Each structure stands twice: as structure tokens, then as C-alpha cells.
Amino acid sequence: MDLKEPLVPTPIPIEKLQTGIPEFDLVLRGGLPRGRIHLLEGAPGTGKTTIALQLLIQTRDDGKKGLYITLSESAKELESTAASHGWSLDGFAVFDIVPIEAQLDRQQSVLYPSEVELGETVRLIIERIERENPEVLVIDTVSELRLLAQDQLGYRRQVLALKQFLQGRHCTTLILDDLTHQDGASDLHSLAHSVIVLEQTERTFGSSRRRLRIAKMRGADYQSGWHDFAITKTNVLVFPGLIAEEHNSDFDRITMESGLSALDELMGGGLMLGTTTMLVGPSGVGKSSIALQYVTAAVERGEHAAYFSFDENFKTLELRSIALGIDIREAVQQDRVGWQRANPSRLSPGQFAWQVRREVEERKARIVVIDSLNSYLSTMPEEKALTLQMHELLTYLNNKGVVTILILAQQGIIGDVHNPVDLSFMSDTVVLMRFFEAEGEVRKAISVVKKRTGVHELSIREFRLFPAGIQVGPQLMDFRGVLTGVPEYDGSTETLLSGSAEAG
452 versus 489: which is more confidently predicted? Predict the structure, then answer.
């Protein structure tokens, strides 16, 4: 007897409603499922009302009917909130309900049981919904209804009745909950089709950090985990968590040259696309200058480059580039280099990753410089998974065929130099840079100590920064212990670069 394969039911497509926040729609995999009840919960000040207003503004712009029912603030207060973002409430209805208990003197409350108050308020809500017949509805906030309930059973009965009424109208509903009374929160979780959680945390220094996550969404796909978001003067910005494996792309495994033949020889021909290179050395040794050389070479080839600086402002970078004979200002003004000053006290890890993605996906950056890892890690001490987030970002950049240059400053100058953190596992190539003493001067040495994607020189070379550019000299054959900072002299000094030499 032939065994028949079990029939697999065909999934029913879910129609989605755009929220007016494009990046939030990415987290929701297209938007909120239509015709369902969605719970948006978070403590006061987390941004619930702002997100709800964006939803109704999008509804209005799409030519659909929206209704905002507010129990926590008046229509005038809501209008003021919208105006602070430059928005107008014109085009959708706003109905503010003053709870019945607020209209009665406390001494009369014995004559007006709380269950009657709750039922009357729900009746007013239902009447207004029937009158307006909206396609999108916002109720702000359900906490006010919970206050009117004398017991959980009465509260759940009224909320369930409201849910059944809404389901019959094919209306997409967003219910806000400020979590000021936790007793009935679990009831709403079970009654709602989806639950979206907002969170706001205060840092030791700098602006607060906002995050959101989808705790539940029945029958629909979404991106799980926490996602950073920010509320600006004009809109809400959501920064979806990065999943590197979703961004694989095909690209040729070619090398990116620096424009300096000696440096390219040291690197084994150049830096391969889709790899990460870490420049490691003490402060002032020239790590940023080497990175700037690769950026300039990429721009001269007609490629776009991105430079993210945590340590210095653009004026400082410009002065350094001028000293090396490089005009970085012109490249930035012509939009050939995307330069951004990353301020960790105002920046969340998710927002930083999103800025990098925009440079790669929208402006097609082929090289990305992050200067420096020390500042990225040390200026956001409250974050618990910065290393993991950086690893995911680097994997994403590798998958997109980008050459990534990380700068890591070591502690110390000459001799006892050590890493503040060990992040070499993140890199495909590690370039070690050191100060050393010779002929009464502090010199600079460079060497490649690791390269996963091919062969490289094992030599140690001197390099210097001249007004005409960077020069990398021949192998330091006559010295031992250069990387210790105090080398031993074994022969002539002809291999050292002359202070008057031209850049090569």
C-alpha cells in the first residue's frame, strides 16, 4: 500500500499595514497585520504616543480613516505633542474621554460603582468607533480603564467585549499601556494578537537609550530581539538589529591597493575585499595616517569610502591629511568620502551599525574605517554585548565585500606596550606598528603579523610620515628587537630612512 505524504496547508497571506516608520516596518517584516489588535506597552516617556501618531499620520496620508481615542490627556495636549514634532492632527479624528470617576465627587463614588464607571467608559468608546468607523484605531491608554475596574474579572470582561466588537469591524487597533498598574498586563497579552515592548534606560553620562522588541505576534513573521530607536524632532528612527547572514553578496576576491608600492608589498599585494584589517599600535604611531592612505587611494580609483571617527573632529583629520599631502576636505565635499563624527554619549550601538549600513548599501562604500575601537568600547560601558555587536557588524561588512580597517590603540609608547582588549579574533589581517629608538631618534616600524587570506611579508620595515606623503622603507636587516622598542644594532644604518627622503 502506497503511503501518501501528509498534506501541508498553504499559509494564508497576511495583509500588512505600514506604520509610517520604514525601519520599524522592516522589524515587523512589512508592517502590522491588518484587522488585528496590537498592544504597545512601555513606561511613561518611552515614546508610545509618538509612535501611535506616526501610525495615524501614515493612515491619513494613505487616504484611510483613523481615530485616536485618548483617556490619559486632552485633545489639546495631544495636539501640542504633535506640534512639537512639526505634525498636524488634521485628517483623522481625535476623541478625548474624561473618565467617569473624574466627573464625580469622591463622596459620591459609593453611589456610582466602579464597574458601572468602566462599563460606561467602554460604551462611550464603542459609540465613537461606530460613529467614525475607522480603519485604524488608537486607544491611549488602557491603564485608565484598568483604574476604573474594581476587580480583574470585571476589567477582563469589558476588555474582552471591546476586543470582540473590534474584531467584527476589521479595524486595525493599537492599544497603548503605560504599565503603571501591572495587575492586568497579562490579560492584555493574552487578548492581543501582538505585543510590542518599549524600553528607555538612562546612561551614566549622555542621552538615554531607547529600545523596542516584538514580544509576540501571532501567525506573522518578525525580527526578534531588541532594536535601538530614537525620537528626533521630526520623526521616529528605528535601527533594526543586524543579522549578518541575511546580507550575503557575490563579489570578486580582488585586492585593494594603498597607492604605495612598498606598503602593498608588505601586505602581500594589498587588502582583499571582504576582509577586516586591524591596525594596532600606540598612540601617535601613524595608524590613522595609514588608514587615510587607503581611503585616498580608493577615492582616486573612483570608489566611495566611509570614515567613522570616535576620537577626533574633522578639522584635526583635515590638518593631518594636509600634512601628508592629501586633500580630504575636497573628497568629503564632493561626497566621495562619507565622514561621520561618532559621538558615543549620544549614539547607541544599533544606530552606529545602521549608519555604517547606509554608507554601504546606499552609497556603495568599498572601504570603511572605524577609528578607534578603544573609544567605541570604553565610552559605552553600560552596554553588555558591544564586542558581539561589533563582530556581527564586521561579518556583515565582509559579506558585502567591503574592506574594513579597524584602529586599536595600545597602552604605552616604547617598550612595555600591551592591548587594552584582545580583539584580534575579529580581524583577517593584523598590522603591528611600533616606536623604536635609533640614531638618537624615535622611529616607527610596521609589520604584518597575521593575514588569513594569503601570504605576506614577514619582514619589519620602517616607515615615516613626510609632507609629501608616507614612505615605507626596506626591511630592517641590521636590527634585532625592533618591536620591543629598544632594538640591538647589528650592522650599518643604511636601511634606515633619511629624514629628507621623498615619499615612495
Answer: 452
CA distance 337 to 367: 10
395 burial (CB, 10 Å; 0-12 / 13-18 / 19+) is middle
**How confident is the model over 293-319, as pLDDT tens digits?**
999 999 999 999 999 999 888 998 898
pLDDT of residue 203: 81
Q: How many CB atoms lie within 10 A of CB 490?
A: 10
SS3 370: strand
Q: Give, to the nearest 10 degrees, the angle between helix 152-167 and helix 114-132.
A: 10
Q: How far is CA 155 from CA 70, 161, 171, in A?
A: 18, 10, 22
Q: Indicate the DSSP class of residue 476.
A: -
Q: What cell numbers appear for 132 in the block?
A: 467614525
- The amino acid present at 308, given as its one-letter code, is F
**Neighbour tally for 323: CB within 10 Å:** 13
Distance, CA of 465 to CA of 344 (rounded, Å): 30
pLDDT, residue 494, reads 65
Answering whether pTM is above 0.70, one says yes
Cα–Cα distance for residue pair 340/226, rounded to 1 Å:
25
Closest CA to 162 of 201, 129, 196, 116: 129
How far, in Å, CA of 433 to CA of 446, rounded? Answer: 5
DSSP state at residue 202? -
Per-residue CA distances from 169 to 36, 125, 195, 196 (Å): 10, 14, 21, 23
Number of H helices and number of E strands within the chain?
Answer: 14, 24
Q: pLDDT at position 323, please? A: 81
- What the chain holds in terms of domains, given with CATH numbers, is 16-241 (3.40.50.300), 246-489 (3.40.50.300)
Which of 360, 356, 354 lies closest to 370 in space, CA to CA?
Answer: 356
Name every residue whose Cβ is closer than 8 Å to that of residue 21 and which is 6 or more positions away in sequence. Answer: 51, 54, 235, 236, 237, 238
Range name among 73-87, 92-106, 479-493 with the lowest pLDDT average: 92-106
- For 111, counting Cβ atoms within 10 Å of its Cβ (0-12 exposed, 13-18 middle, 19+ buried), the class is exposed
The span from the CA of 499 to the CA of 497, in Å, is 6
11 dihedral zone (left: phi>0; alpha: psi -120 to 50; beta): beta
